[in-house]
Amino acid sequence: MGVLRQLAEYLYIKKRDPNTPKTKWIGYMHGINRISIFMFLGALIFLLVRLVFFRHS
Question: Which of 12, 13, 40, 46 has its CA 20 to 30 A from that of 3?
Fold first, then answer.
């Protein structure tokens, strides 16, 4: 499975493949990965806003 496809599944852009096995531990791993992706995107947005609006020369 490609990285971009997995990222799209984490961000709820693409539906999950129904043929993949679903275990409790894989569900936990995907949940943690989803949280870290959202935190990373939030940090990028925060840094971008800080860079654009609060730039002191």
Answer: 46
